[in-house]
């Protein structure tokens, strides 16, 4: 049992720097391996550029950035769930595994819809003013 405890402790984050390195590795991994993450980041960049162009207020920036960070965080969690489910199911079809992955993807969809609604509320009046004001 002591040998098992030592093996587990070996993987524990011993320092703040080690924790940050693991977290950064996770971010790089999700960027490299998940096409949807790259799409979310491109959308985020476009939204931020639009925010700069329209001189958003502090509250608008907070809501826009909240939307962006939530979608990215949910995509990271979704990707982690997919990896764990694949590992646990041995890459064999399982209805429970499918359900778990579909639900995680659904959470990203719900958060993405929130982000879209937030973007519409912020940017449609500004576009309207620009085009017809």
Offer a few descriptive terms:
5 helices, 88% helix, mainly alpha, 133 residues
Number of strands: 0
- The average pLDDT value, as a whole number, equals 93
Percent of residues in beta strands: under 5%
SSE succession: HHHHH
Low-confidence segments, given as residue ranges, are none
Q: Taking Cα atoms only, what radius of gyration do you get, to the nearest Å?
A: 20 Å
Distance between the amino and carboxyl termini? 73 Å
Number of continuous helical runs: 5
Helix/strand/pairing class, anyone?
Answer: mainly alpha
Helix content: over 70%
Structure description:
There is one protein chain. With 133 residues, this protein is mainly α. The protein is built from five helices and no strands. The chain has helices spanning 2-11, 16-33, 35-53, 58-89, 95-132. Helix 4 packs antiparallel against helix 5 (95-132). The longest helix has 38 residues, at 95-132. The radius of gyration is 20 Å and the shape is globular. The N and C termini lie far apart (73 Å). The model has no long low-confidence stretch (mean pLDDT 93).
């Amino acid at each position: 049992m002591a040998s098992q405890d030592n093996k587990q402790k070996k993987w524990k984050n011993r320092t703040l720097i080690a924790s940050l390195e693991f977290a950064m590795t996770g971010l790089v991994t999700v960027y490299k391996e998940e096409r949807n993450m790259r799409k979310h980041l491109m959308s985020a960049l476009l939204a931020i550029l639009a925010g700069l162009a329209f001189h958003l207020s502090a509250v608008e920036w907070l809501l826009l950035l909240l939307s962006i960070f939530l979608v990215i965080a949910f995509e990271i969690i979704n990707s982690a769930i997919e990896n764990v489910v694949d590992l646990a199911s041995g890459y064999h079809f399982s209805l429970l595994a499918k359900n778990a992955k579909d639900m995680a993807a659904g959470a990203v969809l719900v958060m993405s819809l929130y982000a879209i609604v937030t973007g519409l509320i912020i940017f449609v009046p500004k576009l309207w003013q620009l085009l017809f004001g």
